[in-house]
Write a structure and sequence with these properties.
The chain is α+β, with helices and mostly antiparallel strands. The chain has 15 helices and 5 strands. It is an enzyme of class 2 (transferase).
Amino acid sequence: MKPLAEIVWQRLTGLMPGELKKAELPWLATPFQHLSLLANRRATMIVNRVRLFAFLFAVLTPMWIVVDFLVFASPLWWQLALMRVLASAAFASLVLFYQPRGNLLDAYRAMALLFLIPTLFYVASYNLMGAHELAGLSAAVSSGYAFLPFVLLAGLAIFPLTLIENLILASPILIAQIVVAGLRWPHLDLPAFIGTFWLLVLITGVSALAGMSQLAFMIALVRQATRDPLTGVFSRSSGEEMLELQFILASRSGAPLAVAFVDLDHFKSINDHYGHEAGDKVLIAMTRNIQACLRRGDMLTRWGGEEFLLIMPNTDLEQAVQALARLREHGLGARPEGAPVTASIGVAERLGDALDDWRMLVELADHRMYYAKQHGRNQVCAALPDGQDPLVKAA
């Protein structure tokens, strides 16, 4: 008998065949384990869609003033008109002044503002109309305001959100519906309210599934775009993006940031004597051995061919050398003839080498790797003899 948890995982995976790996399924529930690249790209998409949504509301919200003017008496219509103009101006501000920065907290603020504006408008307008005796056409038009929560909750479906993000964003809208019902309690049709509220909850569930489905596709696409197809480690383009981000974060916080440039020794001879398939197997085994030794937060990137870049945030030069010593002790795998795979490794660190650009960090690590290769191979070089480290001297 299979464990219940395994059966549940299989069922969940079957809902989205080929999209997600088992380890990625928890990413649909919470954003806390998302890779920085996924978080940045998702934040950019969320803000862009917030601005699109806000543009639509900024245009359509004031257009309803004409209908209010035709069916409501003064002062109700102009009070509603003023509220619409203010709401439209708030939506327009989101469009004009909120630009995507790739920051997830910034994206959360944008979404909170987007849904806060119509939610406040909904509560205020219902409270305002509740103070007037409406009948006939005006009563029918006023009931149309009740559809705003449905529009907002359905709008959540256009955002690639996790389950917990959907619930947090939907909760204020559902609470606003309860508040509105409380304001009209003496005249509340309780069965109708329960039916309406249940429908809102159902729409929330559908929107959450739609958002999670978008997120699943996004996770799969980001993985395909950022991973090297042979080894499964990060590609060079994604590695550059991550290194730039880590360098910015380290510079802001004053934290160390080390990189190790790893070049396999005599790799060309493997391809020449045993074929490229054998070389590919060596590369795959080597990356698996490195990944088995990585600490939380370390990132391995295939820089090109048999060259790899290991990014080590919050790691100074001494700690990086110690980590690489453990890696070499663990081993990088075996060559086709049985000899151990070795590598020449150059290490550089942002603070210790006084570098202010991530490209210089990579260049210095590359320079030290070549020194290690020219002076015997199968070693780690963290500093060159005096006068031979031009980047450090310039710094």
